[in-house]
Amino acid sequence: MGQDLPIETADHRHTGLSGTLRRGFAWAGDLIVPPVCAACRGALSSHHTLCAACWRDVGFIRAPLCDRLGIPLPFDTGGPTVSAAALADPPDYDRARAATYFAGTAQRLVHGFKYSDRQELRVLLGAWMQAAGHDLLDDAHLIVPVPMNRRRLFWRTFNQAAILAHEIGRRTGLPVSVSALRRRRATMPQVGLTRAQRRVNMEGAFGVAKRKRHLIDGHNILLIDDVITTGATINACARVLLRAGAARVDVLTVAMVAGEVPLTP
Q1: Going by C-beta distance under 8 Å and a sequence separation of 6 or more, which residues neighbour residue 191?
Q2: What number of H helices and E strands is found in the chain?
Q3: Burial 54-83, CB ≥16 within 10 A → b, else e
Q4: Measured between alpha carbons, how far is 259 from 107 in angstroms, rounded to an integer?
Q5: Contact criterion met (CB below 8 Å) for 102 and 257
Q6: d(CA 42, CA 36)
Q7: DSSP letter string over 61-115?
Q8: CA distance 67 to 159
Q9: CA-to-CA distance for 64 and 81, rounded, in angstroms?
Q10: How far apart are CA 92 and CA 105, in angstroms?
Q11: Which residues have C-beta within 8 Å of that of residue 61, sequence separation ≥ 6?
């Protein structure tokens, strides 16, 4: 009994010392790299956030939403509701959620993350995605990022979807596989193509690695990308995953291009 007290007291001292060291390192780090707004670089009191002006410029997508497309609905029906757009042209995936519209501050952040190697933005963008996709995350078994063409990956050196996937995995504890879904061939830019042409353009562009099929078969897959634009890419990925035996495929992104999807129910 008398031996327990010194051990407990030592643990408390150790915990307190560790906390003090962490605060000291954080203070020293802030002196070296002062916290600034992730968008405008204005001075702030903490890292990985936005100033008030930039925050007001973010078009967060709020409920009520179409349960399939994740687009806003004009009123809450009290339960899951599918929009007329989803009924007229059902997606190949089960549900999609995006944190924001691809405009203003959100667009600048995504562009900075994607093209200017601002990988520190994964913390802020990952937090937004986690909040927007909480219902999808509750059902997911495996996180899979949309793969990038090898040539593009060579020049960019990183796949932004894979970085976001790992950030969501870190936050939730869900497993991540960056190699389960493969890009088999390059595709033409989707801009200017009709819906039918986009589908043809993406057909056969993706495949599931044979050695990873057991991760897909019978499981709920959460597909991660940075932006939903035309929907052709994520639909093509979803079709491949479902053919490989996925029980369901949901989609989670940072942003959505509002003009690509009708916003009426």
Answers
A1: none
A2: 11, 6
A3: beebbbebeebbbbbbbbbbeeeeeeebeb
A4: 14
A5: yes
A6: 5
A7: --SSBBTTT--B-SS--SS-B--HHHHHS--SSSEEEEEEESSHHHHHHHHHHHH
A8: 28
A9: 9
A10: 30
A11: 70, 71, 72, 97, 98, 99, 100, 101, 132, 256
178 touches 145 (CB < 8 A):
yes
226 near 161, Cβ under 8 Å?
yes
Taking the C-alpha atoms of residue 216 and residue 244, their distance in angstroms, rounded to an integer, is 7
Over the stretch 234-251, which tens digit does the pLDDT of each residue have? 999 999 999 999 999 999
CA distance 88 to 136: 23
- Amino acid found at 129: M
Does the pTM exceed 0.85?
Answer: no
Nearest by Cα to 231 from 33, 36, 84, 92: 92
Among 162, 149, 57, 175, CA closest to 119: 162
pLDDT along the chain (265 residues), means of 10: 30 47 49 85 93 97 96 92 94 98 97 93 98 98 91 71 98 97 77 70 85 97 95 94 98 86 37
What is the structure's pLDDT at 184? 83
Query: Phi/psi at 38 (nearest 5 deg)?
Result: -65, -20
Sorted by where each starts, the structural domains of the chain and their CATH numbers stand as 61-260 (3.40.50.2020)
What gap in Å lies between CA 60 and CA 98, rounded to an integer?
Answer: 9
DSSP sequence for 33-57: S--B-TTT--B-SSSS---HHHHHT
